[in-house]
Design brief:
Blueprint (H helix, E strand, L loop, with lengths): L6 H11 L13 H17 L11 H5 L3 H4 L1 H24 L1 H21 L3 H13 L3 H12 L2 H32 L4 H20 L13 H24 L4 H23 L7 H4 L2 H29 L11 H29 L1 H21 L4 H29 L5 H29 L1 E4 L2 E4 L1 H23 L15
Antiparallel strand pairs: 1-2
Helix pairs in contact: 2-8, 2-9, 2-10, 5-6, 5-7, 5-8, 5-11, 5-18, 6-7, 6-8, 6-10, 8-9, 8-18, 9-15, 9-17, 11-12, 11-18, 14-15, 14-16, 14-17, 14-18, 14-19, 15-16, 15-17, 16-17, 16-19, 17-18, 18-19
Length: about 500
C-alpha cells in the first residue's frame, strides 16, 4: 500500500479502515468453533515456551554437550518467536490469515518431530527454532478474531486468545514435568507433535480462508534485516550473564543489533510497502501501548522465573525444597486464573474501554508482586501472590491487542498485533536477563553450590512491581480516543 504524505487523505483512509464493521454473526455461524480452534492453537504454541524446562538440567548429558551449549535450546525458541510474530502478522494481512495459521501449525508439527527424532544438539536447536516460529500463530489468530466474531463478542474472543499466552506457559511446566518423569523425555515432543497435528487439521477444516486485507508484496529486505537486528540484540540480552556484560562478544552483539535495527528503521520509513508501518507505530496510542507491553511482559516473566526458583531452593538455604513438578503445580492455579479472567477482561473492555482495562490489569499485576514481597513464608503464600499477578496478566494481555487494533487501519491489523507481541517478547527477554543478574548478586553457599538469598528474591519482586506500575503510567498516557475500539459497538 503506497502511503501519501497528504495528511488529509491519510485521515480519510484511516476513517474508512477504522469504520465500524457490520455484525458478521450471520456470515460466520461457526464463529464459536473458530474461536475455540484459535485458542487451542495459541495454547499449544505457547506450551512450547516452557516444554523443555523440566529436563533442562539433564540436557547436557542427554545430548552429549556442554551446559553453555545446551542453554541455546531455550534461546533458540525465544528468537524464533520474536522474529516470527511481526512477519507472520504482515503475511496474514497480505495473503489471508488462515493460510498463515496453517503454516504456523505445520511448523509446530515439524519442529516437534525434529526434536523427538534428533538425539544431538544441532537437531534440537533446529527443532526448537522451528517451534518458536510457530508463535506467529498467536498474533494472527488475535487479529482474525475481529473478522469472524460479532462486534459485541470480539473483546471476549480476543481476551480468551490473549490469555493462552500466559496459560500455556503456566500449565506447561507441571504438565511437561509429569510427562518427563513418567515417560522418556522425547515423549514431550511426540506429545507436542500430536497436539500440533490436531490443531493443523482443525484449522484446515474450521477456520475460514478469508482473503487478505492488504495488497503488495512481502518486504523481504525488511524482514531479513529485522530478523538479524532482533537476533543480535536478544542474544546479547539472553547470553550477557553467561558471556559477561562487558565481554567483547556481548558488546559486539549489542552494537550489531542496534546498528541493524536503526538501518532497518530508516529503510522501513522510505519503503512504499514496509513490513511494519513505523509512522503508524509512532502514533501515541500505538507507541504507548507497545511500551506498556514491554513493561507488562517484563512483569509477567519475572514471576514465572522467580516464584518457581524460590519454591525449589533447598530448605537449608531458606527455600521450600519443592521438586520441579511440585513447583509447577503451585504455579498452575495462576494459569487457570488467567483463563477465568478472560471473559471478565472482555466485559471490562466493553464497559470501561481497553485503556482502563489495561491500567487495571497492570495495577493488579503490581499488587501481586507487592503481595509476594510480604508473603514469602510458605509455598501457599507465593501461590496466592502468583494467582493475583496472573489475574493482572489475564486482564492486561487482552486489552493490548484491542487497543492496537482500534488505532491502526484494518489492512495493518495483523502486522500491528504481531509487532505488539514482539514488544511483549522484548519485555520477557529483558526480565529474564535482569532477574538472572539480581538473583546472582546475592547468594548463599550450600554444599559448594550458590543459591539466591531471600534478599535477592525480595529485590526481584520489587523490580517486578515497579515494571508493572510503569506499565500503568504508560497506559494512562494513551489518548482517550484509543480506549474504546470503534469497530466494537454493542450490537
Amino acid at each position: 500500500m503506497t502511503r501519501s504524505p497528504d495528511l488529509t487523505e491519510q485521515a480519510s483512509v484511516d476513517q474508512q479502515t477504522l469504520a465500524p464493521e457490520p455484525d458478521v454473526d450471520s456470515r460466520h455461524p461457526g464463529a464459536l468453533g473458530i474461536v475455540i480452534v484459535l485458542c487451542l492453537g495459541g495454547l499449544v504454541a505457547s506450551l512450547m515456551q516452557t516444554l523443555i524446562i523440566p529436563v533442562q538440567p539433564e540436557l547436557p548429558r542427554l545430548l552429549g554437550t556442554s551446559i553453555s551449549n545446551a542453554s541455546w535450546i531455550i534461546t533458540a525458541t525465544l528468537l524464533g518467536g520474536a522474529v516470527a510474530m511481526p512477519i507472520a502478522g504482515r503475511l496474514g494481512d497480505m495473503y489471508g490469515k488462515q493460510r498463515v495459521l496453517l503454516v504456523s501449525a505445520i511448523l509446530l508439527v515439524v519442529g516437534s518431530l525434529i526434536c523427538a527424532i534428533g538425539g544431538s544438539l544441532v537437531p534440537m536447536l533446529i527443532g526448537r527454532t522451528v517451534q518458536g516460529l510457530a508463535m506467529g500463530f498467536i498474533p494472527v489468530g488475535i487479529s482474525l478474531m475481529r473478522d469472524v466474531t460479532p462486534p459485541r463478542l470480539t473483546s471476549m474472543a480476543v481476551s480468551a486468545m490473549s490469555a493462552t499466552l500466559g496459560v500455556g506457559g503456566a500449565i506447561g511446566l507441571p504438565l511437561s514435568a509429569w510427562v518427563a518423569q513418567t515417560w522418556d523425555w522425547r515423549a514431550l515432543f511426540w506429545a507436542s507433535a500430536g497436539l500440533a497435528l490436531i490443531v493443523t487439521v482443525l484449522v484446515l477444516i474450521m477456520v475460514p480462508n478469508l482473503p487478505g486485507t492488504a495488497g503488495g508484496r512481502l518486504d523481504v529486505v525488511g524482514a531479513l534485516t529485522l530478523a538479524v537486528g532482533l537476533c543480535a540484540t536478544l542474544i546479547a540480552i539472553s547470553k550477557g550473564k553467561d558471556w559477561g556484560w562487558g565481554s567483547a562478544t556481548t558488546l559486539a552483539c549489542f552494537a550489531v543489533g542496534a546498528a541493524v535495527l536503526v538501518a532497518w528503521g530508516f529503510y522501513e520509513l522510505r519503503h512504499d510497502d514496509p513490513l511494519v508501518d513505523l509512522r503508524t507505530s509512532a502514533r501515541p496510542a500505538v507507541l504507548l501501548t507497545n511500551l506498556a507491553a514491554v513493561a507488562v511482559g517484563f512483569g509477567m516473566m519475572a514471576q514465572a522465573i522467580v516464584v518457581p526458583m524460590m519454591l525449589e531452593v533447598p530448605e537449608a538455604a531458606g527455600g521450600f525444597g519443592q521438586s520441579i513438578l511440585q513447583a509447577g503445580l503451585w504455579m498452575a492455579p495462576g494459569g487457570v486464573m488467567m483463563m477465568l479472567f478472560a471473559p471478565i477482561s472482555g466485559m471490562l473492555i466493553n464497559s470501561l474501554g481497553a485503556k482502563t482495562t489495561l491500567a487495571i490489569g497492570a495495577s493488579v499485576l503490581g499488587v501481586g508482586y507487592l503481595g509476594a514481597f510480604f508473603l514469602m513464608s510458605a509455598p501457599w503464600q507465593l501461590a496466592v501472590a502468583s494467582v493475583i499477578a496472573s489475574a493482572g496478566v489475564g486482564i492486561g494481555y487482552a486489552a493490548m491487542p484491542t487497543l492496537i487494533m482500534a488505532a491502526v487501519p484494518i489492512t495493518e491489523a495483523g502486522a500491528a498485533v504481531g509487532f505488539n507481541g514482539l514488544m511483549r517478547s522484548v519485555g520477557t527477554t529483558l526480565s529474564s536477563a535482569v532477574m538472572a543478574v539480581v538473583l546472582a548478586a546475592s547468594t548463599l553457599n550450600l554444599g559448594g553450590h550458590e543459591v539466591p538469598s531471600h534478599t535477592a528474591f525480595r529485590w526481584c519482586f520489587l523490580i517486578g512491581a515497579l515494571a508493572a506500575f510503569v506499565g500503568v503510567a504508560l497506559t494512562l498516557l494513551i489518548p482517550r480516543g484509543a480506549s474504546r475500539p470503534a469497530e466494537q459497538p454493542v450490537a
